[in-house]
Specification:
The chain is of the alpha+beta class. The protein contains 16 helices and 26 strands. Strand 19 (about 385-390) and strand 20 (about 395-400) form a beta hairpin.
Length: about 525
């Protein structure tokens, strides 16, 4: 299928709309300023819950919430095999899982077993359009590529299979380098110190090589991970001074390589998006160790799954956590909740009203703002006394205190959100219908941990709070945000459909994962 334009989706981890605006106001992002001066747009873009990278980046690439794509966070329990899925960088949890299993989970199972929704490359391929994936953790596609496991990883954790399937062009760090012949790439970061190639500089080098060779396919998804890492260390303002400014320098070079700014909007469409924001701290946060708080219970090793005598399994996701109970006992669940709620580090406790019933209403409890029970307004919600609609067209039934989620209902029965943007849809999207956990969110001053896991001094994310949840979306002038359900308030789940529309197509008839 011939395309008049090429679409490039740049995903910058933890790209924050307020931070971008601050740096634009200080004239520190001249390329992005030019993009906006030529008719482009900059808007806040709402993440999912939990606002955590593996789940959020998956939502960008699938256009779905976790309830549909199956990726519940960075750490969750897969009930099909009492299997803890872990995609973070805490060595203790990786060792509990086993380094070989940890490597295999990242390299194969994440895309080919755990992912339950089609990726944008798969939708495009079904309609005759080829794609490139550069360093994005979601890469499954129809084409087979050679793969090499770096020597130091082979020695520590064994080898992955020698091939993997992805879109037409695929770069996965030091593992896969499948770009067209004649594309010259220089300046890549490699090896252990270069994050095994999963580095902004590697992504930049590949994009520049493709641009200079005029070899970019109709759709390219390119990932820039370092901004989030630097934000965790020193806060997003400090991170932007290196990572976002470096991206801006690259963008100017990239535009020159494709033929200049006249090509942007006529031959190329740009979408630049973050997957979440970050709370920034002026000093080290308070750390709430959930295993200490719940020490009256028998707690499983997270990486190993439930043992015979375990009552709870805790999966920390920075400023959110999923707590699983060994049984569907309401009594056990209520004991856990009563232990959690009094602590001032807990913002909300969220669970399904009837344990083990995947369609039962959802409950949000707080220490001092009351309790809210809600579900979709349909035939199952007759016991919920009030109804209201949100700005995305969802109709909700509820009872209790809207202040639990800082919601307000106006005289026209419209729900307006405050500190927790789009909370009902995002909470609903976190419950996959599998083994439903108790989700807890952290007060702004706190981050969750369990024994042996790391915390972050500069900033963190994961909760429903506005700061955790608000990323940026920046588009070139040809990109009409009127295509979105609510143009003034896009969500990261809208980004895939926006990119498809720029290529003149919509979602294919793919319904589930193609493995």
């Amino acid at each position: 299928m011939s395309q008049s334009k090429r679409c490039v989706l740049f995903v910058i981890d933890a790209l924050s709309e307020p931070v971008v605006r601050t740096f634009l106001d200080k004239a520190r992002l001249p390329a992005l300023a030019t993009l906006l001066q030529q008719g482009g747009s900059l808007l806040p873009c709402l993440s999912i819950f939990p606002s955590i990278t593996p789940a959020a980046t998956c939502s960008i690439a699938t256009g779905e919430y976790p309830r549909c794509h199956g990726i519940e966070g960075a750490c969750w329990l897969d009930p099909t095999g009492n299997d803890a899925a872990y995609f973070g960088d805490d060595l203790r949890l990786a060792l509990q899982e086993g380094l070989q299993e940890y490597l295999r989970d990242f390299g194969d199972r994440l895309n080919f077993e755990r992912l339950q929704a089609p990726l944008i490359y798969e939708h495009l391929f079904e309609q005759g359009i080829e794609s490139a994936c550069l360093n994005y953790m979601w890469f499954r596609g129809p084409h087979e590529h050679s793969r090499t496991t770096p020597l130091t990883l082979r020695m520590a954790a064994g080898s992955l299979s020698e091939s993997v399937r992805g879109p037409k062009l695929l770069k996965l760090g030091d593992f896969v380098h499948s770009l067209p012949e004649g594309v010259e790439v220089s300046g890549m970061k490699t090896g252990l110190l270069g994050r095994y190639g999963f580095h902004d500089e590697t992504t930049i080098a590949c994009l520049m090589g493709l641009a200079e060779a005029d070899a970019l396919p109709p759709f390219t998804l390119a990932y820039f991970p370092i901004n989030d890492d630097r934000g965790h260390e020193a806060g997003l303002d400090e991170a932007a001074a290196t990572c976002v400014e470096r991206f801006d320098e690259f963008l100017a070079d990239f535009v020159e390589a494709i033929g200049g700014w006249d090509k942007v909007g006529t031959e190329y469409s740009f979408v630049i998006v973050g997957d979440h924001g970050q709370v920034q701290w002026d000093e080290s946060p308070n750390v709430l160790k959930l295993d200490d708080l719940l020490n009256e219970f028998s707690i499983a090793d997270t990486g190993a799954g439930f043992g015979d005598d375990d009552e709870l399994l805790i999966c920390p996701n920075m400023r959110a956590a999923a707590i699983y109970t060994a049984t569907d006992s309401a009594g056990l669940r209520d004991r856990v909740i009563e232990q959690l709620l009094p602590h001032d580090g807990i913002d909300q406790v969220i669970y399904q009203e009837s344990p083990g019933d995947s369609i039962s209403p959802l409950v949000v409890r707080t220490r001092d703002r009351g309790q809210l029970t809600f579900s979709r307004a349909d035939e199952r919600s007759t016991e919920l006394s009030q109804t209201g609609g949100d700005r995305y067209g969802n109709q909700w039934a509820f009872r209790g205190d809207l202040t639990a989620l800082d919601l307000r209902l106006d005289d026209d029965r419209r729900l307006h959100d405050g500190r927790y943007p789009n909370p009902l849809e995002r909470i609903e999207g976190a419950f996959t219908g599998g083994l439903s956990p108790i989700w807890v969110t952290a007060d702004r001053r706190f981050e969750f941990a369990i024994d042996g896991t790391s915390t972050h001094d500069g900033g963190s994310h994961g909760s429903l709070l506005l700061e955790d949840s608000t990323a940026a979306v920046i588009t070139s002038g040809d990109v009409s945000l009127e295509r979105l359900p609510v143009p003034a308030a896009p969500r990261i789940v809208d980004v895939m459909d926006l990119c498809l529309s720029l290529l003149g197509v919509s979602r294919s008839k793919l319904a589930t994962a193609t493995s």
